[in-house]
Specification:
Layout (H helix, E strand, L loop, with lengths): L15 H7 L6 H7 L9 H22 L5 E10 L2 E8 L9 H6 L20 H13 L3 E6 L6 E9 L4 E10 L6 E9 L9 H11 L4 E5 L6 E3 L22 H10 L5 H8 L5 H11 L12 H13 L15 H11 L4 E6 L3 E3 L2 E11 L10 E6 L2 E3 L7 H7 L20 E9 L16 H53 L6 H14 L5 H11 L15 H18 L1
Parallel strand pairs: 1-7, 12-14
Antiparallel strand pairs: 1-2, 2-6, 3-4, 3-6, 4-5, 7-8, 9-11, 10-11, 11-14, 12-13
Helix pairs in contact: 3-5, 6-11, 8-9, 9-10, 12-13, 13-14, 13-16
């Protein structure tokens, strides 16, 4: 007979939970990204090479602009064989204080940009330190950082690694050196990579960086071929954005409770007035009234239930949009000048939309279009996507920009387009989003999330430049037809004059005068002004064909009406 186990018979056996508990330990952020480096843009060797260059160049541009220095950046890629490369980025920025170098380059989630509401390229304090981590993982070599903060200060060269277990920097060596630059920073990282040309290459990234940053000079030495120089198109520095406080509409309950817990102000009214933008004394009182909470309530005495009431009170209160001096758009003229500098076309148009807000964060959408010239007419248009002056080369299909382009009716503007797809034609379309906080779809910062407010603004910007393209193509079509008509009639003027001479029995000596008279009549009856025709011949003559244009004929008045309907329908849809 089988003996039944009693509770007392298992007393000497330890519960399995005790064994499982021994295996639990804290995970460092560096360990997490070491195993999940694809989240940071290190999916493959080709992308790893691009990501490293991108992060270093973005940091250099931010540093130069914050110091009001026109950026001059040198990018060098050295092929060391066996798919190993040395990435060298050197700038003329303000340099980095010696004590800060290890943490900036070898500690994840360390930086000055995460907690502030101000437009900048970097946001998370991950990029360049992740590149250092990837380099040491694939080659075992430390990164070499050289920096100098002024002519009267020494230059330091520091070799460092990242301890992924503790997420702390390891300084391998440091020394004082002679350096030719009076101020600036030089970064050298050895890594495994793959250099290829194409639409998602380092070459394309630097070209697009030069387009969207017309004030930058870039000197690029690829691993193969001769040096390439992108010269700045303007000496004008971008407007320096200012840091702002968070807006009440963009704050969630948990963040509000945390702010209440750490505030130094003694009353709810003073807290609302001093720690939020666009909240004055009157607005703070109105929020308190709508929340049924006394303005004199100490912040540390506010419970979760009271915080929920304050959130409801904020929603009921009409508050001005946040200030827009925290963002620095490129501007209509400069965005077009940057496009002209690198794209050879026959027509350009650009626009900068008014500031708008999503989740309490202000943003501006800018668009530019280039048409014709040497651009291929039988392929989908080229899309250039930018966020805070940074090119976005990957995940185009997942981006709000691509969705907005595909859902805009481009047939109204003279381009060929299938339903719900990107249009076809010799065209380059550029979209730039400037914001204090760009909602990327991942930590790799490769695509903009599909916020309804953002999609709406992108579509309105596209329609604005699209109308300009429609006007141009319509004018080009009419003038092309006019040239054909003049050619055909002029070809038969001699025969017409001969017939008139015979019918009217005119003197043969009058034939030349009759032909001249017929030409004068032809000029008077012309439907297009002569000066318009001359302008087109002068500006676009070599590119204008004297046969029927391949652009479908359309009525611009109907197009304008249709585009306005598109705006209304897109607003209703959103």
């Amino acid at each position: 007979m089988q003996q039944k186990l009693t509770p007392d018979s298992n007393d000497d056996k330890k519960p399995i939970a005790l064994e499982l508990a021994k295996k639990q330990r804290e995970i460092s952020i560096a360990e997490f990204f070491e195993k999940n480096r694809h989240l940071l843009g290190f999916d493959n060797k080709k992308k790893a090479l691009l990501t490293t260059v991108k992060e270093a160049v973005d940091n250099s541009l931010d540093a130069c602009e914050e110091a009001s220095m026109l950026p001059e950046i040198i990018v060098e890629i050295i092929d060391m064989g066996n798919e190993r490369f040395r990435i060298v980025i050197e700038d003329n920025g303000p340099g980095i204080v010696k004590q800060q170098i290890p943490k900036i380059f070898a500690k994840l989630l360390y930086g000055s940009k995460f907690h502030r509401l101000k437009q900048s390229r970097g946001q998370q304090g991950i990029g360049i330190s992740a590149s250092v981590m990837y380099g040491q993982l694939t080659t075992g070599r430390p990164a070499k950082i050289t920096s100098r903060i002024g002519p009267s200060y020494p230059a330091y060269e520091i070799d460092l690694k990242l301890d992924t277990t503790t997420n702390q920097p390891l300084v391998i060596s440091e020394k004082e050196i002679d350096w030719h630059k009076e101020h600036g920073t030089r970064v050298e990282i050895d890594l495994e990579g793959q250099y290829l040309k194409g639409s998602q290459s380092v070459d394309e990234y630097l070209k697009q960086t030069a387009i969207i940053n017309p004030h930058v000079t870039l000197i690029y030495q690829p691993p193969q071929g001769s040096q390439i120089m992108f010269v700045r198109a303007t000496e004008e520095m971008p407007k320096q954005p200012k840091e702002i406080m968070p807006h009440p509409y963009g704050v969630e309950l948990g963040r509000l409770m945390k702010m209440l817990e750490h505030t130094e102000y003694r009353t709810l009214q003073s807290f609302l007035t001093n720690e939020f933008s666009r909240v004055g004394a009157g607005t703070a009182k109105e929020i308190c009234e709508n929340s049924a909470v006394l303005p004199s309530t100490p912040p540390d005495k506010i419970s979760r239930e009271m915080a929920e009431k304050i959130m409801e009170g904020i929603k009921k209160t009409k508050i001005m949009n946040p200030p827009t001096d925290c963002i620095s758009p490129i501007g209509k003229d400069l965005i077009e000048k940057g496009l002209k500098k690198e794209i050879n076309a026959e027509f350009y148009a650009s626009c900068t939309r008014p500031p708008v807000v999503y989740s309490g964060n202000p943003f501006i959408i800018e668009a530019a279009i280039a048409y014709g010239g040497n651009l291929p007419e039988d392929k989908p248009i080229e899309i250039l996507r930018f966020a805070n002056r940074v090119p976005l080369l990957y995940q185009q299909g997942a981006c709000a920009v691509t969705k907005s382009i595909a859902t805009t009716n481009w047939r109204s503007y003279g381009l060929k387009q299938s339903q719900g797809s990107v249009p076809i034609g010799g065209c380059v379309l550029q979209i730039h989003m400037a914001s204090v906080w760009v909602p990327f779809t991942s930590e790799a910062k490769e695509a903009i999330a599909h916020y309804p407010e953002i999609i709406k603004e992108i579509k309105l910007a596209l329609q604005e430049v699209g109308r300009e393209l429609g006007k141009y193509l319509n004018k080009k079509k009419r003038l092309s037809h006019e040239l054909n008509k003049v050619d055909y009639i002029s070809k038969y003027l001699t025969h017409v004059s001969d017939a008139l001479q015979e019918i009217l029995k005119l003197d043969p000596a009058e034939k030349t005068r009759l032909e001249e008279h017929l030409r004068v009549v032809l000029e008077k009856t012309r439907s297009v002004k002569k000066e318009d025709l001359e302008d087109l011949k002068r500006d676009y003559g070599p590119k204008l064909k004297r046969e029927d244009s391949d652009v479908d004929d359309y009525d611009f008045d109907e197009e304008k009406k249709g585009s306005e309907d598109d705006e209304e329908s897109s607003e209703e849809e959103l």
